[in-house]
Amino acid sequence: MELRETLAKKVAWISVISNIILTLGKIIIGWVGNSDAVFADGIHSAADVFASVIVLLVIKIANKPADDEHPYGHGKAEVIVSGVIGILLFLVAIYVVYEGISGFFHEVESPSFLAMWVALFSYVTKIILYRSSLKVAKENKSKAIEAIAFDHKADIVASIAAAIGVLLSIAGSRFDIHFLLYGDKAASIFVAYLIFKIAKEMLTEAFDILLERNIDTETLKEYVAVVKEFNEVKRIDRIRARELGHYVLVDLRISIDHYKTIKQGHDLAKGIKQKLMDKNDNIQEVLIHLNPFFAEDE
Q1: Any residues with CB less than 8 A from the CB of 51 and at least 6 apart, and which?
Q2: pTM for this entry
Q3: Which pLDDT belongs to residue 265?
Q4: Residue 103: CB partners within 8 Å, gap ≥ 6?
Q5: What domains can you pick out in the chain, each with its CATH number?
């Protein structure tokens, strides 16, 4: 758990520092270089900075062990953060769309080449950050780090779109093709769409977990297969599981022969629980209810 927290903090700090540098660069160059797309990308990076700071504040809470007041642990703290970041990105998308559309109703000037190079630099940087963050998130099953990775993912396409938009605008100015001058404005709207798409994914997942939606069918089938390996289990009456941030809780109802002793039932349940947790390291708890099974039930 300490290693997981250390890795999460390291990823978050790297994200904070890199995003501060990219934010300042894209906002300043976007403004000075007359590029709405690069400027919008800078606003998105500013949102990333805020998101990373929130993650740093909540990681310690999410990794706290269960206590009397929170018997199921504190994993949902990460989910709440993911939802907050999603809302933030949604608001950013609305702002960028407004600025992009309003730009079509005014005379435009082509951006500078410097704006394009800044966007390309951001693109390369974000690819590196996304891949490294996602790897750590999967290895540690962290929703908070995954949220940071998704932020980087949105920036990858956003940055290349901004660079293309700037290049089209410059081409429109050089070759006197008027409609291409609006390439930068169009790119900023496309950036907003990408931001909105990521926000929607994050909010959907956060709400699903907070509302304790059952985990995906394929994973449940894997759990069922493990339970069926025990011959004493006559029937699986019900199985469900829910995510609490980086870990899963499983509820299982099974039927066993009615003449089994409490000790035999206890040992069976203990064995099933151990095997499920051995094969799925993200399962933190398995609650098993035993029902009596009679021959006539077959």
Answers
A1: 84, 85, 88, 147, 148, 151
A2: 0.63
A3: 93
A4: 36, 182, 184, 185, 188
A5: 2-210 (1.20.1510.10), 217-297 (3.30.70.1350)
